[in-house]
Amino acid sequence: MEKVRIVEVGPRDGLQNEKQAIPTATKLELIERLAAAGLRDIEATSFVSPKWVPQMADHAEIMAGLQRRPGVNYPVLAPNLKGFEAAVAAGVTEVAVFAAASEAFSQKNINCSIAESINRFAPVFEAARQHGVKVRGYVSCVVACPYDGAIAPDKVAEVAARLHDLGSYEVSLGDTIGAGTPASVLRMLEAVATKVPVAQLAGHYHDTYGMAAANVYASYQFGVRVFDSSVAGLGGCPYAKGATGNVATEDVVYLLQGLGADTGVDLQRLVDCGAWISEQLGRAPQSRVTRALLAK
Ligand code: HMG
Ligand code: MG
């Protein structure tokens, strides 16, 4: 059976843009329910500036409160050495740095140019090697940017290659505003795959235009075997106005199960988790699969 790794980003990407205060205990229970549903990679929080992203200000409490399960990874975002050091002090063993393929988005998101961001990441990779910490790299705006419009696939390939060469064990390709279609995502993947092996790529697709599941399918056919998703389709990006959450994890699991792939996830438990967190946030689950199964 073909194995597919799902990186659950709900507790981070899903919650980072929430305006309402979410108790740390609720975030911890979400992470625990996700692990109980079989997810093995759960992005737990971000070690970014609390002035920029207030919802992730409780990062140290999250790491301290985790009931770590054997075999489960709890990566976090770290934009610079300061974030990396705080993460390691909190017991983190995997971080993700995040660059963009668009200059304007890089400025809005992390307050520096693409080249400057790479310069800031270099010491993070160096420190990570010393601490035995794994580093994942993200590229945002792999299809389009909310400020600069369409992004050239070659530009995505160039940034992905930089992150790969610096030492990312995997590069996650973010369609931040969910504007991609299977055609544009495949053009992007073809360019990136000339620089980074497909086995080290992940698809990170937001669902703003309802294309994310189609983009997962196209990427799977291309050979990608790692996908980022968010339970109940939670989320949005603080620096991409109007962008909705990631593709819902429930929908990705259902799609991949239909293809005969093994995700290791118990769909029913995941659906229960999606219904639970949606209730905590006072809204309906965005996952079509969850809605369908709850209506049964
Ligand atoms: P800056 O203001 O340029 O940084 O922010 P600075 O180095 O000049 O520092 C300014 C202040 O921030 C200082 O504090 C620093 O100590 C503090 P002050 O002296 O003013 O009190 N600071 C920090 N505090 C906590 N943790 C840190 C840290 N670094 C500096 N790590 C910075 C630069 C990157 C910090 C800022 O722009 C930031 O935090 N941005 C947040 C970006 C973010 O979290 N965006 C959302 C996640 S990315 C995403 O969602 C896309 C993704 O899902 C893929 C996709 O969908 O495309 C991954
Ligand atoms: Mg994202």
Automatic annotation (TrEMBL):
<keyword id="KW-0456">Lyase</keyword>
<dbReference type="InterPro" id="IPR000138">
    <property type="entry name" value="HMG_CoA_lyase_AS"/>
</dbReference>
<comment type="similarity">
    <text>Belongs to the HMG-CoA lyase family.</text>
</comment>
<dbReference type="InterPro" id="IPR000891">
    <property type="entry name" value="PYR_CT"/>
</dbReference>
<dbReference type="GO" id="GO:0016829">
    <property type="term" value="F:lyase activity"/>
</dbReference>
<dbReference type="Pfam" id="PF00682">
    <property type="entry name" value="HMGL-like"/>
</dbReference>
<dbReference type="InterPro" id="IPR013785">
    <property type="entry name" value="Aldolase_TIM"/>
</dbReference>
<protein>
    <recommendedName>
        <fullName>hydroxymethylglutaryl-CoA lyase</fullName>
        <ecNumber>4.1.3.4</ecNumber>
    </recommendedName>
</protein>
<dbReference type="InterPro" id="IPR043594">
    <property type="entry name" value="HMGL"/>
</dbReference>
<feature type="domain" description="Pyruvate carboxyltransferase">
    <location>
        <begin position="4"/>
        <end position="271"/>
    </location>
</feature>
<comment type="pathway">
    <text>Metabolic intermediate metabolism; (S)-3-hydroxy-3-methylglutaryl-CoA degradation; acetoacetate from (S)-3-hydroxy-3-methylglutaryl-CoA: step 1/1.</text>
</comment>
<keyword id="KW-0479">Metal-binding</keyword>
